[in-house]
Amino acid sequence: MAVVERYLWVVPLDLLETSNKMAAVEEAFHKFAVYGNTAASGNDMTGKNFSKMCKECGVMDGKAVTSTDVDIVFNKVKAKGARTITFAEFQEAMKELCSKRFKNKSPEEALQAVYGLIEGKEPGSPGTTKACKSDAVERLTDTSKYTGSHKERFDESGKGKGLAGRHDLTDNSGYVAAYKGAGTYDQTH
Fold first, then answer.
1. Among 124, 121, 113, residue whose Cα is nearest residue 27
2. What is the dihedral of CA 48, 51, 57, 62, to 10 degrees?
3. E-state strands within the chain
């Protein structure tokens, strides 16, 4: 067994790996706990986020572990009347689910396998619309090819002028519109 000596302590290497794995699992727990709720502290996770975590990390496979199983385990480990679970309750839930997910492994191996699925993961946004990059879209959004009044809405670099590009702004200088010598009166007199 390999050991690492640090500050007069002798720590088994597999214990260090387990603590690093638990830190990564706890970090993933906090990331999923705050997903979709800006006011969340990250210490408690809702059932919706727990289900999302199980689905995105591969704990819920649809055969051995279904969404119903995940919901039942969540309600079993949370405190009565509570809507969220803490990290300690999350660990209990993972102990419940690991035996269903990995039936052919021992409970400890199954738990480590589930933690291996979870560690380092963060919530994603599957199904969100991505920007299309096709020739038709490029041609239609190229501002250098605009003509007429639409051409006036953008400057030479293609950046929009905002309100100034959409409306004719009135010139309150006192000169007639399109007068070329505006502002030269003081210079000639």
1. 121
2. -140
3. 3-6, 9-12, 45-46, 84-85
- Both tokens assigned to 152: 């006036």
Q: What is the pLDDT of residue 187?
A: 73
Give me the pLDDT at residue 18, please.
60
CA-derived radius of gyration, the chain: 31
- Residue identified by tokens 């794995």 is 21
d(CA 144, CA 63): 55
SS (H, E, C) 105-156: CCHHHHHHHHHHHHCCCCCCCCCCCCCCCCHHHHHHCCHHHCCHHHHCCECC
Tell me the Ramachandran region of residue 183: left when phi exceeds 0, alpha when psi lies from -120 to 50, beta otherwise.
Answer: left
Tokens of 160: 């929009």
Query: Does the pTM exceed 0.70?
Result: no
The stretches in the chain having pLDDT less than 50 are 6-16
**Closest C-alpha to 49, from 27, 66, 33, 71:** 33
Tell me which residue has tokens 């990250």. Answer: 42
Q: How much helix, strand and coil, in percent to the nearest 5, is found in the chain?
A: 50, 5, 45
Task: Report the pLDDT value the prediction gives residue 50, as an integer from 0 to 100.
Answer: 92
The one-letter amino acid at 13: L
Over the stretch 8-25, which tens digit does the pLDDT of each residue have?
A: 444 444 444 566 778 888
